[in-house]
Amino acid sequence: MPKGVYKRKPFSEKHRENICKSHKGKPKPWLKGKPSGSKGKNWKHTKQARQKIKKNNAKYWLGKERLKMRGKKNPSWAGGISFEPYSVDWTVTLKRAIRERDNYICQICSKYGNIVHHIDYDKKNCDPKNLITLCRGCHAKTNFNRKHWQNFLKEMMK
Questions:
Q1: Are 67 and 105 in a shared domain?
Q2: What is the pLDDT of residue 131?
Q3: Do strands 131-134 and 115-118 pair parallel, antiparallel, or not at all (unpaired)?
């Protein structure tokens, strides 16, 4: 295929009319929560809301709040366990076997999953009963409120 800039042909009037007809009467997500008929043009925050947004954004843009949340001060800190090495048994073959056991399906939401997760969050426990296949989204969820997910997944595996 030749290199270069390709220009898109403009839509014909007939095509534009068809697009307008197909969208007529459908909900407009960009208008959600806004006064009807304003189409977002006249929607403004109150003066107090603007000041609050400005104050909160200033904290994060300056980086002061981010620096306060590092390491042990972060509410998600789990004692530095992310730096522990995995077990010698944690191999590509083991992970593939677990994925194949679960048919590459996330055991929480039933979507495609390719991440092998330790139910008890212990990297050294590579028992197949302790391993489960998850999708990216569900794996991210399981990193918060760990006690809940640990109990939930243990019950699921029974």
A1: no
A2: 92
A3: antiparallel
Pick the closest to residue 89 from 140, 143, 130 (CA basis).
Answer: 130
Amino acid at site 100: E
Residues 6+ apart with CB under 8 A from 43: 34, 35
Tell me the C-alpha distance between 103 and 91, whole Å: 18
Question: Which contacts (CB < 8 Å, 24+ apart) does range 111-118 have?
Answer: 111/135, 111/137, 113/138, 115/139, 117/142, 117/153
* pLDDT, block means (10 residues), the chain with 158 residues: 59 78 66 52 72 75 65 76 78 92 90 90 87 91 87 84
Radius of gyration of the chain (CA): 25
pTM over 0.70: no
* Domain termination residue (choose one: 59, 77, 95): 77
137 φ, ψ (degrees, to nearest 5): -60, -45
| Cα gap 108→91, rounded to integer Å | 23
User: Which among 77, 96, 123 is the end of a domain?
Assistant: 77
Q: Does one domain contain both 120 and 100?
A: yes
Query: Residue 102 is part of which domain span?
Result: 86-157
Q: Are 100 and 131 in contact (CB under 8 A)?
A: no
With the C-alpha atoms ordered 46, 47, 50, 55, is the resulting torsion angle positive or negative? Answer: negative
